[in-house]
Amino acid sequence: MTQAERAWRVLHVLDHGPPTRDGYVARTLALAAAPRGFGWQPLLLAGPRQRGTPDGAATGGFALLRMPAAPARPTALRPLIELRIAARHIAAAARRLAPDILHAHSPALLALPALRVGRALGIPVVYEVRAFWEDAAAADGRGAVGGPRWHAIRALDTFLFRRVDAVGALCAGLRDDSLARGIDPARVGLVANGVDLARFATLRRDPAAGRHALGLPARPTIGYVGSLNGYEGVDLLIDAAARLRDRRPPIGLLIVGDGGAAAALRMRAAQAGLGDRVVFAGPVAGDRVVGHYAACDAMAYPRRAVRLSERVTPLKPLEAMALGRVVLASDVGGHRELGADGQTGHLFPADDPAALAAAIDRVLARDADWSAMRAAARRHVEACRAWPMVAGAYAGLYARAAAR
Fold it and tell me: Cα dist. 338→168, 186, 302 in Å?
């Protein structure tokens, strides 16, 4: 049996896990579940910022181990305390569980202690980059691109890229940025986002029936499922709906998710005079979210053109494509990686509510084209984005890491 064919015992070191419901957790559980068919044994360890799950609690078929939270300290000292906590508990878990691989997931403040433990215990370390966290902080208004904090976080990632045994990049944008820092291409692999095709089976239900099932008004509906953060551009979707206020038949928005911008978005919809035309469903559990997709004629993902969205691919548009929903997405790098404009979905200029409104209007007026586009999107996901296929890419990276 070659290294690539072996049944890997992998300790995943995570920022957070369930019960939090976000793209980070969805990817984590998928990467852990899919390779079990290959005989791999995934082990999950959540960092000191995890909340709401007792140590050892079963979640998604896995036992999630949890580091204790850091005691309250001044903000400047807290990251250092968390590093010490993480190093101590990663070492204890590694000694007890004897993994073949330490697989540290972004952010760097968990990869750093994982690297230290891996070197001390002779365990290969793989670092999965899901986003550049300096860009995420800038996109959320917690820093400025090019500022001291931005450069410090970026330097830490570069330090890790040069010292871990392999790097798994979530998308081409992150991979290319990593390689531009002088990292050996043989140590960097692309492990993209994927979809559970069994869970997100093609919808047969007509959107009108889906709206009836949720008690929504009988009108064409554009949906959004995802985090409600500023860079996601959901405010632009509300502005686009306001521009289409006089359209006949009138359209509605169904917004599913939560985040720091939620209250401001509700106020924006009210100030735009949209009334009940915008329904905020809040966060919805994964086993129920398919019903919300089913209520929508098309899904819109209006991410703003910032460094993060140019480099990182989101997960939710892939779910919509798997379910056979027409996808409208802003023309940013992360969206361009997901499919072909005009074939598996439609791209519109980013940061432009007028362009988004025009795209919505065109799509709703051409419902005769929906069937072919939905089928093409589903075929694309089946061919390129099924989780077992995606997660299996780690076999080669683990083998390369072990060989080092």
Answer: 18, 24, 14
The conformation of residue 338, written as its DSSP 8-state character, comes to T
**DSSP state string for 370-399:** HHHHHHHHHHHHHHH-BHHHHHTTHHHHHH
Q: How far is CA 382 from CA 195, 331, 363, in A?
A: 9, 23, 24
Q: 220 by DSSP, 3-state: which?
A: coil
pLDDT of residue 25: 86
DSSP reduced 3-state for 72: coil
DSSP H/E element including 91:
helix 78-97
Measured from the Cβ of residue 351, the count of other Cβ atoms closer than 10 Å reads 16
Which residue carries 């996808």 as its tokens? 327
- Give the other-Cβ count within 10 Å of 267's Cβ: 10
Count other Cβ atoms within 10 Å, centred on residue 377.
27
Euclidean distance between CA atoms 346 and 359, whole angstroms: 8
pLDDT tens readout for residues 192-235: 999 999 888 877 668 888 898 898 988 999 999 999 999 999 99
In this prediction, residue 144 carries a pLDDT of 67
One-letter amino acid for residue 53 of the chain: T
* Partners of 358 in beta bridges: none
Per-residue confidence at 1, pLDDT binned at 50, 70, 90?
very low
Lowest mean pLDDT among 66-75, 121-130, 197-206: 66-75
